[in-house]
Amino acid sequence: MTVGLETRLREVLGKKTADALADGLGLETAGDLLGHYPFRYAQRGERTDLASLGIGDDVTVAAQVRAAVKKTFTPRSGKGRGRGGRGELLEVIVADEAGRSLTLTFFNQGWRAKELVAGRWGLFAGKVAQFRGRLQLNSPQYQLLAEDADDPASAIEEFAGTLIPVYPATAELPTWNIAKAVHTVLGLVPSPPDPLPAPLRDRLGLLDYGTALHQIHRPESHEYLGAAKKRLKWQEALVMQTVLVRRKAESAGEAADPYPEGGAILDAFDARLPFDLTAGQRQVGAEIAAELAREHPMHRLLQGDVGSGKTLVALRAMLQVVAHGGQAALLAPTEVLAAQHHRSIAEMLGDLANGGQLGAPPEATQVVLLTGSATAAQRRPVLDAVKTGAAGIVIGTHALLYEGVEFANLGLVVVDEQHRFGVEQRDALRAKANKPPHTLVMTATPIPRTVAMTVYGDLETSRLTELPAGRSPIATHVVPYGDGRWMQRTWTRIREEVAAGRQAYVVCPRVGGDDTDDPNIGDKRPPLAVTDVIEELRGNQLHGLRLGLLHGRLDADEKDRVMRAYAAGDLDVLVATTVIEVGVNVPNATAMVVLDAERFGISQLHQLRGRVGRGSHPGLCLLVSEAMEGTPSRERLDAVASTTDGFALAELDLEQRREGDVLGAAQSGMKSHVKLLSLLKDADIIAASRTEAAALIDADPELKRFPEFAALVDDLAADRGEFLEKG
């Protein structure tokens, strides 16, 4: 039987196995299965690091049976009782050569002692638990390896000799069953067509596709395994970068309205600035101004650390467009952030935002806000101003995407925190322009270079790294939640800041009520809720201070009322969730307490911390946590406390988190197409593949010479290409 990569697994493996692979892992074709690579390789006799196992982990370990002991016990209930009302427990101790041990427990399965004899090696799969201080697997699945490694019919041969592939598996579908399925399919698939262009493959000395597939699943040696991984990583990187390069080339051919540099309203705004732009703001501003003046749409990513002045740079770009008859739309992910942008931009512009009013300068425009919670009466004048072009700057949330929002001449789309928007939402705003608009994507989360190359590779990238004059330093400390003296001092510091005429934030991980959907709770207490914490603070630690409450469930009017009161100094402390994470700017706020800080990521903590120290007084951020010294959670907090360099923290974040999380679920097909490539370890391959992709597209834009490679590129483009249409 000849099997191709598109052959359905049901035709090859039978209904039961095929259904298990499809239901449990989403693998439906031979190509899907062969693309389900092992995530590690066990080796008989190697030192498996049993000490690294974590409670609750689903693991597959290679270990040797050291002892098996039968015990009897009386169950607390009828469940688990054998004959005579007593149960039988089989405890099996397995260990690696370094002496690290693990206990396997089987209830009323004493017969397993006949095969789990001392000296036998095996693969054992299950969830790690702890009992009386010892790690154990309860009723694990297992596959024993042959006693004689030279026996060709043994499990050793079945699991590829000395290197045993361990696959991402499920409880119902252990790794050895997947390995058997892969072995069957590999034997039926002839050498598949190689999608990589032959000249490139030969020049780089890469394995052919068929050999790479065999060696990744059944490696003859570590050397062959390394060569297989290199070849398959190159394929992933080159396909991805070719999609990005082709998108960039296509957008360069589009026609957009040009907006010359300078202009009356921009010149008037610059003349009023009470401070000098930083060197970075001047340089990035010049890059953007030059691109806006061209007849092809700008596609630029503006990233900068907390407080680096991205909004000012974006505003100057918007004013350049407005000065020459265009409109600019700023799309924000939350109503709090949209309202904050509206307030800050209106304040910066002064009477330049009073277009159409008596006494306004002739070059003035209108700055309007549109959110989903606006009433019909509130929306009507805004929609009219947008449609007629009287509103040069339009700020809003997803409400900008609705039917009925018509622009007179949309020339620039600014997307703030773009990763929070879906493909359809971004495309809906672009579709409201007469011609392809210029696009500026802003992110307040510093992005590691390899992530920017991978996710934003079709955008020109600008970085703001220096802080404007007047920004104050921020001191960050980790506070142990269980230490009463430290906690008392924490709240005393907040009172001291308020007594000095300044303000503070208290941040909690959740709102309250039934929102206990944190997947990391486990057996721990629920995360602290903002609705509970504010009552506790009012009655005890911060009694007598003026406290305000802010979270995402409040209606828009209440959110706006609270933020205005806080900005005006009518509240001493704002107790909030992460709705304040980005964009909120209250220069008088100097202190922040983050409760349950271990439940936040590195980048999120850095963004939260950026809400303080925005004025002339130093900032203070106190990270309150139950995390113990030496744990990964505590190390993460200590890292945040040790530096305010967001780009350094972004690299650390990439090291500590799963890269799929960094890329984000919104990246559509990214996860399914990138399986081996590491953003952290394979920067050289990513960079080199970028150069190769550019050369391929330059020589053959349609990739007609390499149809198999073109098919992979088209597949990825269809899966996530729309995501790459930034804005």
Q: What would you note in describing this structure?
A:
This protein is of the alpha/beta class. Among the domains are: 54-78 and 85-150, Beta Barrel (OB fold (Dihydrolipoamide Acetyltransferase, E2P)), CATH 2.40.50; 264-464, Rossmann fold (3-Layer(aba) Sandwich), CATH 3.40.50.300; 474-643, Rossmann fold (3-Layer(aba) Sandwich). It has a 7-stranded parallel sheet, with helices on both faces. Helix 7 (209-217) packs across helix 8 (222-252). It starts with 9 loop residues before the first helix and ends in a 7-residue tail after the last helix.
Count of strand segments: 21
Q: Uncertain spans, ≥5 residues at pLDDT below 50?
A: 149-161, 517-523, 661-671, 721-727
Q: For the largest beta sheet, what order do the strands appear in spatially? A: 11-12-10-13-14-9-15
Please state the structural category.
Answer: alpha/beta
Average pLDDT works out at 84
By CATH reckoning, the class of the domain at 264-464 would read Alpha Beta
Main sheet specs? 7 strands, parallel
Helical segment tally?
Answer: 25
Proportion of residues in β-strands: 15-25%
Write the CATH fold name of the domain at 264-464: Rossmann fold
Distance between the termini: 49 Å
Gyration radius, rounded: 30 Å
Q: What is this entry, summarized?
A:
The chain contains 25 helices and 21 strands.
List keywords for this structure.
ATP-binding, DNA damage, alpha/beta, Rossmann fold, nucleotide-binding, OB fold (Dihydrolipoamide Acetyltransferase, E2P), 6-stranded parallel β-sheet, 727 residues, 21 strands, DNA repair, 7-stranded parallel β-sheet, disordered C terminus, Probable DNA 3'-5' helicase RecG
